[in-house]
Design a protein that fits this description.
By secondary structure, this protein is of the alpha/beta class. The chain is built from 21 helices and twelve strands.
């Protein structure tokens, strides 16, 4: 071994390493060097003892000399591969064994180090192998966790904020109170409302309506229903969403978008638990819970705008805030694994592993479109359409991503559009200015690539109006 531990300069990546060498001086010196580089070293003079300490959950690499009595490093590699083929094995070899080591790499050995080896190279190789092993175990854990998840996908997570939210939903689910859900675009507001309904034990329908997606005249009819002849074109009696939710739960998304006249009528429904369809003076009694959702903090007068304060106070008997994904980045890996597994089933593809590039994206990106944006990202990765991850993951001099030139150009263009939308939170004007394309061209490309502006914070009412 050349150099010193102090000069190794290897990444300080703490984690276990098994080191096997029958030379006591070399074993002691190498173990000390790896410890100084941040590793938890288990040193053994022979392969049998090392195997006794090894299981398929071992979280690091194995470093072994090739030539040892009783069991060689090559034999140890075969035994390790039988335990878990994804445990990285690094072989230390003398000059005469280099050909053997090269063949071993072709057979699945992670790497080999020739004697006398440089401390910095060994530390760096072990650090990369340890990172690979960590990713393998992380992918396994996330896949197992994702496989055990039911249908409540958006509220999956282990961070304190999402655990508290789930606990609160369970506590208030069977209480006879209306609920206001506060959350950003794509954070899972309808999932929260659906869970409140399901866990409440209410036997009626779960009825959802986006108040920001319909004009006032249509919204009023959708909510309250109408009798025949109530207005021009009302040829049939219609049961409104409020009455249809009798015995169940009415979910009103984007409640802040309700016109003032509708707000007055909604307030009356909440206070009397009665509904009066258009075209009749008949009042019908209701047994329903109302869950309203909003992007705006209606408790803030500046954010509330024209929303009635009495309606706000009537709705917020309980307020549930959904943390945006950027506040619970620790859950992004599990969510990605879940959505990628679902995407693989849907598209008939293999489940993608979380690579270092994907992990950097999951941990470092703000996700303005929250869980909905993460779902689309998982779809793209599963389909092999995430060119940014391809570029980040590719080492210098590597082969370019697979695909024809037109396919690669389309993938690159779609990635630029998504990045621009994310930077400008789905706002069209600054996005098309940054991209330098006409508005019609921009919308044509959104349709072509299946990009939804709402995933990046675009106003849903504008999206619906645009059609």
């Amino acid at each position: 071994m050349t150099g010193t531990a102090a000069k190794a300069g290897g990444p300080k990546a703490a984690g276990p390493v098994i080191f096997v060498d029958d030379d006591p001086d070399l074993r002691r010196a190498t173990a000390q060097m790896l410890k100084l580089a941040g590793f938890e070293v288990q040193a053994f003079e022979g392969a049998p003892a090392a195997l006794d300490a090894l299981g398929d959950e071992f979280a690091g690499p194995v470093v072994s000399d090739i030539r040892m009595p009783r069991m060689s490093g090559l034999e140890l590699f075969e035994r390790v591969r039988a335990i878990d083929p994804e445990i990285p094995v690094i072989l230390v070899t003398g000059h005469a064994d280099v050909d053997l080591a090269v063949q071993a790499v072709k057979d699945g050995v992670y790497d080999f180090i020739a004697k006398p080896f440089d401390a910095a190279r060994l530390a760096g190789t072990v650090a990369r192998a340890a990172e690979k092993r960590r990713l393998v175990l992380e992918n396994r854990r996330l896949r197992e966790a994702a496989a055990g998840v039911g249908e409540d996908m958006s509220l999956v997570g282990e961070t304190l904020s999402i655990v508290r939210l789930r606990d609160t939903i369970r506590q208030v689910a069977d209480a006879a109170v209306d609920v206001l859900v506060l959350g950003e675009t794509g954070s899972g507001k309808e999932v929260v409302a659906s869970l409140l309904h399901r866990w409440s034990g209410r036997r009626g329908n779960f009825v959802a309506l986006n108040c920001g997606a319909l004009p006032e005249s249509v919204l009023e009819s959708e909510l309250f229903g109408h009798e025949v002849g109530a207005f021009t074109g009302a040829a049939k009696r219609r049961i409104g969403r409020i009455e249809h939710a009798n015995g169940g739960t009415l979910f009103l998304d984007e409640i802040e978008s309700c016109p003032p006249a509708i707000q007055v009528k909604l307030l009356r429904v909440l206070e009397t638990r009665e509904v009066e369809p258009l075209g009749t003076n008949e009042r019908r009694r209701l047994d329903l819970r109302v869950v309203a959702a909003t992007k705006a903090d209606l408790g803030d007068p500046a954010a509330r705008g024209g929303f009635r304060v009495d309606l706000y106070y009537r709705l917020n008997a309980v307020t549930l805030r959904i943390p945006p994904l950027r506040e619970r980045r620790g859950d992004a890996g599990l969510l990605f694994a879940l959505f990628a597994r679902r995407a693989a089933e849907r598209f008939g593809r293999s489940v993608p592993a979380i690579t270092p590039a994907i992990r950097r994206r999951l941990e470092g990106y703000d996700w303005p479109g929250n869980v909905r944006e993460l779902i689309h990202y998982a779809d793209r990765v599963t389909l092999g359409l995430d060119l940014e991850a391809d570029r980040a993951a590719a080492p210098a001099g590597a082969e370019p991503p697979a695909g024809t030139l037109p396919e690669l150009v389309e993938r690159y263009e779609a990635g630029l559009i998504r990045d621009a939308l994310a930077r400008h939170h789905g706002d069209v004007r600054p996005t098309i200015e940054a991209l330098g394309v006409p508005r019609k061209t921009f919308y044509d490309k959104l349709r072509r690539y299946g990009i939804v502006r709402a995933d990046y914070g675009a106003d849903a009412a504008e999206e619906a109006a645009r059609g």
